[in-house]
Every structure is written in structure tokens, then in C-alpha cells.
Amino acid sequence: MGETNTLLERFMGKVLVSDECWEWTASRDHNGYGKLNIGNRRHAKASRIAYELFCDRIPRSKMVLHHCDNPGCVNPGHLYLGTPKENARDRDVRGRTSVGSKHPGAILSESDVVALRAMRDTTGLPFKAIGKDFGVSGEQARRICRRLKWRHLKA
Questions:
Q1: Residues 16 and 23 sit within 8 Å (Cβ to Cβ)
Q2: Please, what's the largest Cα pairwise distance for the chain?
Q3: Which of 41, 114, 125, 138 qualifies as a FRET site for 60, CA 20 to 30 Å off?
Q4: Nearest alpha carbon to residue 131 among 143, 147, 148
Q5: Which of 142, 151, 144, 154 is nearest to 97 (CA)?
Q6: Torsion of CA 79, 85, 42, 46, to 10 degrees
Q7: What phi, psi does 32 have (nearest 5°)?
Q8: How far apart are CA 106 and CA 71, in angstroms?
Q9: Nearest to 142 by CA among 125, 124, 127, 122
């Protein structure tokens, strides 16, 4: 009969340990965070597994954050718990936000949005016509002009 590896053994078999960050060497998600199959077609973030293996249980209301700003790091000394609000603040302070043209799905640039809003203000054309000129739907143009989208742009 074959031996079944424990979670700790499976986990450590996918980690490159060093004096600084412990780098996850296996599968990662689209943001670079390590992930590990935990059965039943489910994956868990490697940093969460590291925290639970080496530190403590994670309360439902908490997330695992990184002191080192390295998504692939699973060094328990670099991990700490925080709220979603603290995670968002940390992300913003470190400049890891994906807003505006930095968003992977962005069609428009910041200058496009400024021009789109200016066109609506000066011409009064329907949103559908303006959207067509910029390669977006009329509904998207309406949301941009009403500042429901691209709120971070003051222009």
C-alpha cells in the first residue's frame, strides 16, 4: 500500500525555504499567489495554509496579509491577519490597485475617459453614439459620464 503524505509534507515539498521569503514553487493564481489542491477539486491559497500550519486558525472575518509584499511568499514570519478593509488599504498604499487603464480588462485609457466625458458635455450626443466612437456600449458611456465608473478621475 502507498503512503499518503500529510498536508505539511505536501506543502513543504512545494516551498523553497530561505532566510527571507519562502517561495511557493507550485501552481499560482492570476495574481501570483500560491495555491494548493486540498481535495474535491478545491484549491486553497498557500499563504492561508502556511498560516494555519505554522501560526493559528484563521477566523472567518480575517484574511492573511504579507509584510513582504511578495504574493508567492509563504514564510509564516511574513504573514499576519487583517480585515478586508486593512487588506484594501495595504493594497492601495503599496500601489497594487488595478484601477483605470491598469485594470486587465480596461478598454479605455484615462485620456479616453476625459475625452468621452468632454464630448458628452459639449455635444449632448446620446450615450450610444458616444460609446460607439470610443468602442464601448452606450450603457458603459452613461456610467462613465455619470461617474459610476472611472470615479477616480476628477476630470
A1: yes
A2: 77
A3: 41
A4: 143
A5: 151
A6: -10
A7: 90, 5
A8: 23
A9: 127
CA proximity to 33, closest of 2, 67, 5, 70: 70
Put simply, whether the predicted model's pTM sits higher than 0.70 gets the answer no
Residue 39: in which H helix or E strand, if any? strand 35-39
Of 38-52, 54-68, 121-135, the range with the lowest mean pLDDT is 38-52
**Cell triple for 113:** 475617459
Residue 24 DSSP SS3: strand
Amino acid at 112: D
DSSP string, 64-93: EEESS--TTB--GGGEEEE-HHHHHHHHHH
Beta-bridge partners for 15: 24
User: What kind and span of H or E run contains 37?
Assistant: strand 35-39
pLDDT tens sequence across 41-60: 788 999 999 999 999 999 99
